[in-house]
Amino acid sequence: MTSILVYVVDEKGKFDTNMTKILPSLYEESRDRITFPIKIQRFLLVQETIPDSGNAVAAIVVSSVALICLVLLAGLLFIMRKRQTRFNYGERCRPVSLDAYSLDSVSAYNSVRRKGVARSSKRSYGNPTFEDSSAIPSHPLNFAGLSSFCNDINAINEEFAGIPQVSAKIDELPAGAEVKNRYANVIPLPETRVLLQKINNDPLTEYINASYVRGPKNATKYYIACQAPMESTVTDFWRMIWEQQSKVIIMLTDLVENGVEKCTEYIPPSEITDCRRLYGDFQVTLKKRETKEKYAISTLHLNNLEKNTFREVYHIWYLWPVNGVQSDGAGLIAVLLEARALQRGGPGPIVVHCSPGTGRTGTLIALDLGIRQYEITRTVDVPRVVYTIRRDRAGAVKTKEQYAFIYKALNLYATKLAGGVLEST
């Protein structure tokens, strides 16, 4: 169908609006034939199209979806470009050493509290590709802040989830060392692994599942965190105690828990009837045992039979609950104060172990570092303390319950210190 558009012009050839409007009515009202002179100036044939409503709707929907996709794609490209700029390791990151961040000199005004999901370190201690210092978790608290925050379990759990994990690789161990590990997935980082003196040039004789951990003011080799001795590694354990000149051992596990062996017996059970044990070139003699409410202190003589000399070693055995954590931190605080007094003058690291040497061990070391930090600065930075320990002993502080316990025990210590019940030593 073709439409013809007609319009009327006056004598001068100009468009006449009124005549154009009344033209149709002239045909209807007149009974006679009317003849008009017609002059065709120009014409345009317009093809009428009847739109398909269904196709129109479909076209609109497709166009809308395409537009939304384009907007989302543009947003995604923008975010990826922004992240690429932020984490361009080749241009922006630099090697980070925690030695520059003393645990005992933290400024509350320069801290950065990390929030969000947990991230894992791509490498262990001293990783040059790890993020810059601003990403190190930090949340320093004074007495008032500690008292308030220790009761906010959700915030504590969120903070714990944001502390990066550090892990070692099994291929970084000496060949054959896996038989000396109590747990296949708990291995020391090569940078902080304790090395025993090599025997007969055998590299396997220098391996023990133990790690040096930094102490107050980043003092190197202040602690040794290690797995519980196995029957095949008890001699290595006492060799480490001798070679490292350690004076205090803190044990945080029972020999058997829930029917599973957690630690081989490595000290004599009685100072009267069965007071001696022989492990290779070392004889261990129990001289005295003092039993307290939640722990026992044993005085041992460690005899090096090859050198015909002995040293005095103190063994503190704390009965950690089989499941979960303690109801309060008083017992563990007492253990730390005992260890501090016994360690005075000792040249070697304090040795701490549970069964794997990570969860309970890391919790005790974190509590000790937090207490020492608080005594000096009256502030404590728990996430930074825990992360520092993990950089030395992978897997330290395993559960959110252990992490919350650190806060609870620190608050108890700070409260007693403020009330004059305790004295900084």
UniProtKB/TrEMBL annotation:
UniProt domain Tyrosine-protein phosphatase: residue ranges: 180-413
Example of a GO cellular component annotation carried by this entry: cell junction
Every Tyrosine specific protein phosphatases domain range: 327-404
Keywords, ordered alphabetically: Hydrolase, Membrane, Phosphoprotein, Protein phosphatase, Receptor, Transmembrane, Transmembrane helix
Active site: C354 (phosphocysteine intermediate)
Keyword presence, Hydrolase: yes
Transmembrane segments: 56-79
Pfam families on file: Y_phosphatase
Name of the protein this chain belongs to: protein-tyrosine-phosphatase
